[in-house]
Amino acid sequence: MIGRTSKRTGGTNGREAPPCPNIWAKAGGHPCWKVQKALDEQGIDYEIAKGPWPRRKNRTAVLEGTGQALYPAIEFEDGSWYREESKNMVQTILDGRLMEKASGQPVA
Ligand SMILES: N[C@@H](CCC(=O)N[C@@H](CS)C(=O)NCC(=O)O)C(=O)O
Q1: What are the pLDDT digits (tens) for 61-90?
Q2: Nearest CA, atom 1, ligand 1
Q3: Nearest CA to ligand 1 atom 8
Q4: Does 86 contact ligand 1 (Cβ within 6 A)?
Q5: Domain boundaries, the chain
Q6: Which residue's CA lies nearest to atom 7 of ligand 1?
């Protein structure tokens, strides 16, 4: 079951909380886990969306979103996607730049 997280709004300061991403992963896969761990360290709320495994050609959501079939990939609430080599994804997340990747533009 794959669900997109519902939009959450910020607390009393009126600031809207950043979009809450879905991370597409194969549970236990090392690159996926590294990215998940980085999200945890940054306190970023996310949901795991388990994609089809192992059949690459069935991974249509990831394929359509990122133009390739590898996990992990992050789908933002606005429908945009972010996928890089997991070590770059980890760096981006730890630098606090993940939300810059939620462009509103599908990565294609
Ligand atoms: N070098 C890539 C490796 C990504 C990777 O191997 N991901 C695994 C799952 S964690 C995968 O999707 N493998 C594709 C396959 O075996 O079909 C990275 O670090 O992002």
Answers
A1: 999 999 999 999 999 999 999 999 999 999
A2: 85
A3: 71
A4: yes
A5: 3-101
A6: 71
CA of 83 from ligand 1 middle (Å) equals 11
Ligand 1 centre to CA of 54 (Å) is: 11
- Nearest residue (CA) to ligand 1, atom 3: 31
Closest ligand 1 atom to residue 89 Cα is 20
- HEC string of the chain equals CCCCCCCCCCCCCCCCCCCCCEEEECCCCHHHHHHHHHHHHCCCCCEEEECCCCCHHHCHHHHHHHCCCCCCEEECCCCCEECCCHHHHHHHHHCCCHHHHCCCCCCC
26-67 pLDDT tens trace: 767 799 999 999 999 999 999 999 888 888 888 999 999 999
Distance CA 59, CA 9 (A): 31
pTM to 2 decimal places: 0.79
Topology (CATH) of 3-101: Glutaredoxin (3.40.30)
